């Protein structure tokens, strides 16, 4: 039992880090850090993003370990929050104070906790639903600090990272995961399937990163043009979108986080079913 728990936690944490690295390596991404540029971010580099992702392995491993085989409860919520906040501190130490993965620690932290509750036996739908249950429990130790997300969620009446999780990740369940699977089913190459997944997230999500930098107009612009790029279906249209986002200081950081979370869920579920689509794609391309 002890070894199974330890092995699951280590493997799941590695999967989480791999998902974060896959997200940042995916190129070209509009407004985000990728292999060719740093998007609309002056203080971020791909190397910093990679280092940050690797620094989070212990955080994810600890969350999985304490959640293994348990059920959502207030005490577990508080324990996970404590580990998550330490993860944020470690991230800021690694990056010299730059926010690289705050939203991703939150989303993947909850999902890895839920996956561990099911000891690796839950479907992606069960994982999201369990993660929502955990996020709905109150955390009395949560500091009442003013964040960009809180400010714009109130101002524009939208769901931020917290609402998305508390509702059981509807944008992953109904938008991104179906797009990833549909793209693969059409025989679309893996990298393009991931780009489609990111574009559809940008087209649908009320991303508080975009709102706090550019307000409602920027969010509308991002949604409309991501949707058009998805319809156009060419790498050139994504490159043009990248230029347009950089000029307008638009960064879809929330969509990037949910893409990483989608890739994580896809892999965790793949392990469960024994059908590793990622490996299959690597063999065939
Ligand atoms: C909930 C969190 C993300 C704070 O959210 P808030 O909106 O107040 O903050 P902030 O603007 O600083 O960051 C939000 C980040 O979420 C991402 N995001 C933005 N919009 C969205 C959206 N609609 N959906 C999902 N993610 C989004 C972005 O990357 C953004 O940077 C989180 O940091 C937190 O409360 N952590 C406490 C520790 C904890 O409870 N951890 C438990 C699991 S590890
Ligand atoms: N490839 C990526 N490029 C840029 N941001 C990303 C990427 N992947 C994820 N993100 C997310 O974007 C967020 C960073 O966005 P941003 O810098 O706008 O946030 P901020 O620190 O709240 O505000 P700002 O820097 O605008 O004052 C991180 O929380 C991170 O989770």
Automatic annotation (TrEMBL):
| EC code | 2.4.2.52
Q: Which UniProt keywords apply?
A: ATP-binding, Nucleotide-binding, Transferase
Name the GO terms of the biological process aspect.
Answer: prosthetic group biosynthetic process
Q: What class of enzyme is it?
A: transferase
- Tell me which domain of life the UniProt entry assigns to the organism this sequence originates from: Bacteria
**Which Pfam families does the entry mention?**
CitG
Q: Which reaction does it catalyse?
A: 3'-dephospho-CoA + ATP = 2'-(5''-triphospho-alpha-D-ribosyl)-3'-dephospho-CoA + adenine
Which InterPro entries does the entry mention? CitG, TriPribosyl-deP-CoA_syn
Q: Which GO terms describe its molecular function?
A: ATP binding; triphosphoribosyl-dephospho-CoA synthase activity
Q: Under what name is this protein listed?
A: triphosphoribosyl-dephospho-CoA synthase
Species name for this entry?
A: Domibacillus epiphyticus
